[in-house]
Amino acid sequence: MSELAERVNAVLARAAGSTVSTSVAALMTTAAVVLGKPDLAFWAVPTGAAVGSLTEEGAYLARRAWALRGERVNYFVEQAATQSGMTDDELMMDAAEDPMVIRLLSEAVEAAAESADEAKVRVLAGAFVRGAKDPALVDEMRLLIGVLRDLEVPEIRLLALLSRPNPRATDYSEQFMAWKGDDVSGADPGLGKTMFILRQRLAAAGLAHPESSGSDMLLTHVGRTCAHLLHEVGSTMGVGEELSAALAPIAP
What we know:
Layout: H1 3-14, H2 22-35, H3 39-44, H4 48-51, H5 56-84, H6 88-95, H7 99-114, H8 118-133, H9 138-149, H10 153-162, H11 181-187, H12 195-204, H13 221-236, H14 244-247
């Protein structure tokens, strides 16, 4: 048994009460089993035994940090239930019918637990709902969730923006040429100061071409595929082609 698994067992044996709802705890535990990552189950258990030796202020900080993971998964469940028109219990029972949907749900829960933004969690919920409703899309949504897990909201905003027709295009053949930095900052001023850092992070993920000519920004084929999937999820969420509308609440 690994050290982390032993810690999980020890905390479970000593703790009383619960930090998260039973449905969220069940989801995080399921994700831990499916993905072989016991730390997800660890975050779902009570904090009392783990912080007993800390000062009052330190214990409060630790409990809040601990609880935040569960709160993000709870928000994911709420969003998935809203978008699917189902209760959280119905959502879990429906997912249990298909092993691939269980996998999709587990990966979405893991990404939600690690997310720092509600906007990103909303998109993750939309991706899960789209895959759960149509088994033919499960693999595509798993790909998208895998990409989203490693991106933060500003990077997702840049990805969505670069997938749009280039504003300098004069005919169809030029719609997907590289964007200029001035055009990016003009279309989304909130990205202005960080766009080149964000471009490099997209490039590291294989979604954008590395810097080749000054301020040019161009998505790779993989990047365009992911952006297309994002737009499809945006349509499912009721924001049409403007996926950025789903992310607008966090814009500077």
